[in-house]
Amino acid sequence: MRPDTMGRTALAVLPGLSLCVAVTAAASLVQAAEERLVHHPYVEALVIAILAGIAIRSVWEPGPRWRIGIAFSAKQLLEVAVMLLGASISLSALVASGPALLAGIVATVAIALLASYAIGRLLGLPARMSILIACGNAICGNSAIAAVAPVIGASGDDVASSIAFTAILGVLVVLGLPLLIPLLGTTPTEYGVLAGLTVYAVPQVLAATVPVSLVSTQVGTLVKLVRVLMLGPVVLGLSLLASRLRDEPGVPAGARKKLGFFKLVPWFILGFLVLAAARSLGLVPDAALAPLTRVAGILTVIAMAALGLGVDVRVVARVGARVTLAVTASLAVLLLVSIALVRGLGIA
């Protein structure tokens, strides 16, 4: 690309990108205030950003001057963020967890994915939204939804709906999960496994386990990390299957072209796998891990602000009841499967 063309592109992107950064900064300040007041972000900046974007979009529709930067933030920045997440993945966590627990986590994620997708489709939700809800429920909530969205070509409305309702239930799980300790008679280790399998985000795992015990926190964090590792294989698998979503009724046969490898497996997924392999081989220094993770987190929040700014609230409202029911039912399945796993493994 010529320098003058790059300059014009940058100038075109700047207004919308600046708006998304401003929303991200405000969301980060709210999260920081939460951490000072209650020591844990029950509602993360990622969720705050998308809700703030939706609120702005409901009273003001960005014009053409803003849309280019908003679209850039929602797509390109999100893809870079997904790629950078690969640097935080290491196979050592898989080895440390032990074969029985590892197999149980994989089985739980697989069952939750299939069950959640089936529930969404039975409720009449579109395939893409059903996939987003399934991945968010089974793996790691908002982060999984954000990572999967560009792979399957999900719309901003689908992403916003999935994240909004998943976020609400995620907070309820954090608040309600400790109530199961006396009901189920769980040990600290059992509770840690249960929290790691059911709570959506890593900070929320800490919020659910720190008040219980140090053992619960350590076990819950480890199980949650292994569960997050499932995001890589799931995203890769979806990228290979994504072309089937194009084979929908009403699409002309001539438009259903076979795609090459680099279309089926997007560049950022390849980058994700390369960084994950480099991390596992010790080629990514520990000193670089925190900055890379931080940059990925910031870019993800900016992308979520952009998605919120592109959401038509009326579209979300039309599917609200079905999405709420799908997320709730999916979470119930995940909780039941997780309890069965804890009991079945006989963890002390």
Automatic annotation (TrEMBL):
Residues 1-32 form the signal peptide. GO terms for cellular component: plasma membrane. The keyword DNA-binding does not apply. It is found in: Cell membrane. It is a multi-pass membrane protein. Pfam families: Cons_hypoth698. InterPro entries: UPF0324_pro. The chain crosses the membrane at residues 42-60, 72-94, 100-119, 131-153, 159-181, 193-213, 225-243, 264-282, 288-311, 323-342. Keywords: Cell membrane, Membrane, Signal, Transmembrane, Transmembrane helix. Belongs to the UPF0324 family. This is Putative sulfate exporter family transporter.
